[in-house]
Amino acid sequence: MKKSALTAGAVALGTAGAGTATAQDDGGSGSVVVFGDDYEPGVDFTVASALNDGTKDELFQEIGAEDEFDTPDDWDVYLINYDVGGSAPSLGFLMTEDVDLSAGDSETMGADGQFRNAELDMVEATPGETGGGGDGGDGGDGGEPAADEEDGGMGGGNETDGGNGGGN
């Protein structure tokens, strides 16, 4: 299959260009594109390697995606390995223009995937997004959003519909 040959070529040719930056933490605003066969929602993956520009261009040409991306030069392509257990690797391609990754970085594939291009079998998702509020990987703010939400039980003594709060 062509995809297997591309994967082997990417491993051989794409090892150059791996940076030292970690995945951006922009509040989950970055998205990634993977092939349908490479989409494993909610599963952790590790970046094995970044493809160099020549290999990326060959990949886009081989799959017929030259026109899929407005500015192909702004996109990066990574070889990723899903953590699905077992001894054989589960490799796939990940494409992004706004998530900064490098070899060794780990993330979880978002469960919010939608087809970007059904004909090319490309799915777009947000790393770390689960559709149910995330997996708690960032820690961070904790309970702050609950105080701002309508379903909280904070206050209510001066509300017109009751004196005990209790939310909705």
Structural write-up:
The protein has a domain at 31-132. With 168 residues, the chain is of the alpha+beta class. It is globular, with a radius of gyration of 20 Å. β3 and β4 form a beta hairpin. The termini are far apart. It has a seven-stranded antiparallel beta sheet with strand order 5-2-3-4-1-7-6, with helices on one face. It has three helices and seven strands, in the order αββαβββββα. It has helices at 2-13, 53-63, 144-148; strands at residues 32-35, 44-50, 76-82, 90-96, 106-108, 114-117, 122-125. Helices cover 17% and strands 21% of the residues. The longest helix is centred in the N-terminal third of the chain and has 12 residues, at 2-13.
